Amino acid sequence: MIRAGVLGATGYAGIETVRILSSHPMAKITYAASKTYANKKISDVYPNLRGVCDIVLSDVDIQKIKESCDVVFTALPHGASKEVIPSLYNAGVKIIDLSGDFRYNDQKVYEKWYGTPHDCPQLLKKSVYGLCELHRNEIKNAQIIGNPGCYTTCSIMALAPLLAHRIVNTKNIIIDAKSGVTGAGRQSKLEYNFCECTENMHAYKIATHRHTSEIEQELSLIAGEEILVSFTPHLVPLKRGILATSYANLNGDYTDEDIYKIFAEFYKNEYFVRILKDALPETNHVAGSNFIEIGFKVDARLKRVVISSAIDNLFKGAAGQAVQNMNIMFSLDENCGIANGGIYL
Amino acid sequence: MIRAGVLGATGYAGIETVRILSSHPMAKITYAASKTYANKKISDVYPNLRGVCDIVLSDVDIQKIKESCDVVFTALPHGASKEVIPSLYNAGVKIIDLSGDFRYNDQKVYEKWYGTPHDCPQLLKKSVYGLCELHRNEIKNAQIIGNPGCYTTCSIMALAPLLAHRIVNTKNIIIDAKSGVTGAGRQSKLEYNFCECTENMHAYKIATHRHTSEIEQELSLIAGEEILVSFTPHLVPLKRGILATSYANLNGDYTDEDIYKIFAEFYKNEYFVRILKDALPETNHVAGSNFIEIGFKVDARLKRVVISSAIDNLFKGAAGQAVQNMNIMFSLDENCGIANGGIYL
Amino acid sequence: MIRAGVLGATGYAGIETVRILSSHPMAKITYAASKTYANKKISDVYPNLRGVCDIVLSDVDIQKIKESCDVVFTALPHGASKEVIPSLYNAGVKIIDLSGDFRYNDQKVYEKWYGTPHDCPQLLKKSVYGLCELHRNEIKNAQIIGNPGCYTTCSIMALAPLLAHRIVNTKNIIIDAKSGVTGAGRQSKLEYNFCECTENMHAYKIATHRHTSEIEQELSLIAGEEILVSFTPHLVPLKRGILATSYANLNGDYTDEDIYKIFAEFYKNEYFVRILKDALPETNHVAGSNFIEIGFKVDARLKRVVISSAIDNLFKGAAGQAVQNMNIMFSLDENCGIANGGIYL
Amino acid sequence: MIRAGVLGATGYAGIETVRILSSHPMAKITYAASKTYANKKISDVYPNLRGVCDIVLSDVDIQKIKESCDVVFTALPHGASKEVIPSLYNAGVKIIDLSGDFRYNDQKVYEKWYGTPHDCPQLLKKSVYGLCELHRNEIKNAQIIGNPGCYTTCSIMALAPLLAHRIVNTKNIIIDAKSGVTGAGRQSKLEYNFCECTENMHAYKIATHRHTSEIEQELSLIAGEEILVSFTPHLVPLKRGILATSYANLNGDYTDEDIYKIFAEFYKNEYFVRILKDALPETNHVAGSNFIEIGFKVDARLKRVVISSAIDNLFKGAAGQAVQNMNIMFSLDENCGIANGGIYL
Q1: Across the interface, do A19 and D291 touch by the CB < 8 Å criterion?
Q2: Is C199 left (phi over 0), alpha (psi -120 to 50) or beta?
Q3: Is C150 among the residues known to form the active site?
């Protein structure tokens, strides 16, 4: 059994990691930490786990983590990371970090979009971007993973095949993304109060959301040239789900059939990728699962393709992909413990 | 008092018209028709109106409508229209039609997008497109109004000022719109079942939604050249609200301040238009009201502007604007009976 | 025009009062106060009111309130009240208090259930319980009103006719009530976060909720003997709406028809009361309105009657009834400015 | 591997059974039937299962079922049952029926509450009521199980320990239950349209809901005397979850501590039962799981106890308990394949 630790275990991404690991046949939670709830049972904070996972939350104790964990999932607030991760890294523990800290190839891009110096630039160089379908081989041998953001996973996977095959123009790419409220994390701010969120929706952080830079890094890599995108996030009144609608101008007279073939071929061996034909993704097809649905439609009139992609932001967009990364790093079946379909209802 | 009739009174747009007229100080519902519920009280179908509007629903009786109505709001299914509207028109009754039938300047555009011959091409020529803020003067003297669609009102008003001032390129305009479920009307289809809609969202009719043609007609008029747009509608789990996110490439180095001035000037005398500065629209700011909120953000990096606009699809997007049209046609204050702010909670 | 002040104007009950008064034809908001947002426009806090009510929020300035208001709606946090209300009372201003402070005939009952000494016992004696349908005559001449709680309005009105006519046993009365989340007020606590509330429901404060004492006071008055009730509140995932399901044992072999007659007669002149026959109340029939719906069913097998009643907790359960009280106090039509039916959609 | 069939596989209870069995380590779906969707893949109807369970739906073919299944879960519409179940029974197939048909000890009670003659009275005698925690021993040896209703599971388990120990009076028991919309099944009726359900709640079938009789049968068995209850179901706007609030008069001066001990003892070996101390159940603690949460509060003032219990109506209230029954019938660990905690978010 893989001995797994979860730091920041009571945030929404943290607890989803705990929930998934609780029923993973090859892993076992041996350490869970939470600053706010140290010394409480995790099931006192999340009663849905009572009788299922009753581990007592610790404060972050590096020594104990080293001794008890083969892999650590870090879902820590910024700053806490820098004291913890290098030390664990040096002790040989595998690290899957769910923050934005280890997702960048270029420290400067991180520092520009996050507005803060990077805490561990030397580790940044060693970290691998954990979008499993695109970086599987590097992940296998990595010791530290920057687990991708939710918006970014959903956006990158929708555009990668078309850019890889130079089907679409690299200019004028627009990604309009919609997220459920769990994407904001576990917060007690008024703006996330039920009465303020339900029956409401709005855009936010237009042209400035950090995930833009993460999307651009990966799409540029795939395209082999610098790609800049408009990325607009929106908050919509549901819990789990991201829907990204991506627009790109076609480089030729491609049909829906052409596009389908490209997607189907690109993702042909991927358990978690569903390419839709004559249908469009819905977030409740993937909620509660690690799947991504991708559909599209060519607008021949405008020589443009519109791609629609859907994931569960907490699962494939965070904790599920983190466990997928663990599976790859430990040479398990990639869908081990996360093979289930969505909950739908 | 204006004597008003509502045909198709028990659909969602119809009943919203009834609800608004019920508290209108200068109008009075004298006729309400519903094929399905003829001979029932309207308040037996919508108990929220019991004691407030208990009119008995009739079948459509042209003679009686002529005698009892100065204006008729038609929210009829396709086909029913053609037998009713010409006859009422000839009798001199003013008509505000909430369907797509009288929104087009060019019969062929209608026939292409609706896939059916137009029933009353001669009346189509006389009808005025009832987007009040753009066609006020023609509306004043019109006898028949094609009341705009919900998506179209929200989209056109967001782009009109920029196109009128040639601030943005006329190519590559993209409108990504999200609608609440009342937009689908009163339906008993499985796909609109609570369990299928809540905690779910998806795009639909990509590149083929009829409102595209309506948006293109109006934007082309304003720009003075043919404009084609990508328009993508989405269904999101709330009742009232449309949010449109529009993308356009800037023709120069405009700042947020520049854009604000253009919007503020363009809509300076408009009671129902709120231009936001350093803030973005939210649908619950306008739900239950005839207001539109418009915000925006210049992405200097990409020389692009992103405009966000929000309306209540049933109110400004249908029944409220219909009443606004009535107010204009009868020389009342334009906000008479619809001056209220949104319900927010 | 009645000059009205609202203190605590940015809480949920406060802002609903402002919203309703904004379209009241005989009243005008001349003063609005908020500790948190003093010196801001109210429409900066609630953008749905922009262009509709843009009054600048003040701190509480007794002198200015006296000069500018005929009536003041107080929706203040406990403690603030005691410094404000006596002073306004002495100046002859009419007061409609939305807190629990002036709802009790017996100071001791208040002190027991609220766990705190009463701040103004002398005013408590002069205050009238503002459940309009039951205390209309006293309200007419009152200077200070204790505006009823939301749960209590919904519960008392459902049971009053049966107790008045001694149709039901005074023992074993059980009230199981469900409330939307606005009932908790404007709060930034984690438990009211969208993700914690949506797709969730639970009971709370079983056997200890303060509204129990308010219900018991009024039912005892009506029955002419002491009545104790089980009252259980529940939180359900919607914004507006209270549904109370009340159970009482019948004193005889009454039929549904008998019960209907008693209710219909008891409330025969009441604009805001809808007694249902062969149908049960739904909260969306009353949401956004001052109406109450009451339905019931005799369970002949158990010689018990079950009464179901529904109101909008913010409207009839708070701000709407407060305005109804104002209308009575100023001899206006009782439904002036609040005659509208619910919004339904 | 247990070879399992699911008849009526595309209804909400049916598909939840399929979903749960898809990840069950000891069972395998070998047959799935749906009248409406025969010859389609199940994952074409429920795309969340694509790649996870792509079995082709059959019509009901008794011969094939006999050959391919060790156990059959029947979630059929009334009438279809009678042709299928006896034949399967005679062939020795184990049957877990999710309808109301095999839940009754007394055919007359069934016929009275369902208003129809029973189709297979001879099998009714052999069937066991599948509330696992109460009838485990009979279930072990049964060939046919009447899987309990959702409301009934939640209600019976909340009252059983108190009645077994004669702690509460057998008169005046009241159960006020609230259900999410999946409880209505997969329906395209207008009343379950998102716009009609969301932001709405109401009681229904007061004093006449069929589950009343099922609750009374089991509580009477436990109490050793005939028990009649008031049972009121309500529809609330969420997908998964039942919350039952039960009221009973105490036979003595019991404290919360006393009640806790009784519950804790009664369910001491039950994996799926959580007894709460100083806390109340919430449906999102159990949604997506087979757990039941039970909390309570003594109202010493009224000598009454109020019990609150929560389950997931589709899981413990239908498909999950059905699988729990299968586990018992096949001598597996009772929580095999259903040990997971709720999804919470």
Answers
A1: no
A2: left
A3: yes
